[in-house]
Amino acid sequence: xxxxxxxxxxxxxxxxxxxxxxxxxxxxxxxxxxxxxxxxxxxxxxxxxxxxxxxxxxxxxxxxxxxxxxxxxxxxxxxxxxxxxxxxxxxxxxxxxxxxxxxxxxxxxxxxxxxxxxxxxxxxxxxxxxxxxxxxxxxxxxxxxxxxxxxxxxxxxxxxxxxxxxxxxxxxxxxxxxxxxxxxxxxxxxxxxxxxxxxxxxxxxxxxxxxxxxxxxxxxxxxxxxxxxxxxxxxxxxxxxxxxxxxxxxx
Length: 251
Hints:
globular, 17 strands, 251 residues, mainly beta
C-alpha cells in the first residue's frame, strides 16, 4: 500500500473536512510490541481555530475524570495546545507494571479537545463550546508474544445460542490477541440479521464475546447459518471473512 507523507494528508484533510472535524490522529490504533515501553502518535488540528487537547489512558470506562484513572499507560503531555492546522506528537509510555504474559492487554487513549476562545470572545456574543473525545485502542504485547501472522483469525469460532428467549451470536477466541470485529451479518437464505452494536465489539484473548441479535429474530429457526464479518488488523484495515456456524445450541 502506498503511504503518503503526513503533511500531505493534513493538507488534504483541511481541504475537504468541515471545521468541526476536530483533532485527527494519524492512526486508529497503537501497538506496543515485544515489550516496547513507548510509542508516539502524531495529531493534527484540522479546525480553523486553536484547541486544547487533554490526553489520558484508561481501560475504556469513559466516565472517569482523568486525574482519578489508574492505568499501566500514561500520555505525555497531559495537556497540549494546538494552533489551527498544526501538528504535534503525544508520547504514550508503559509504566512497567506487570501485565498478563502470553496474551495482549488493551487500553484506550483519550484525546479530549476543547476550542480556545479568542481574548475578545465575550464581545462576539454567546457561544456554545463542545468538548469532543476521540478514543484510540492501545495494544500491549509482552516479550515473547510475536505480532500475529496473517491467518491468526482462524482461531475465531462462532456459534448461535438461545439466551433469555432470544438468539445470541457467540465468538470464542482461541488466540492470544484481541479480535476487533466489525460488520457482523448473519444469514441463512431465509432471513438476515445484524447483531446489536456496542461500544466494545472485541473478543478477548482465550475468551468469549456475546453479540445479541435483534429481538425480531427470536422466533427464527436457523439452518445452515452463515456469518460475514470483518477483522481489523494492526494497521486499522478491515479484512472480510465468511464462515458457516455450528448448529444452534438450545437451552
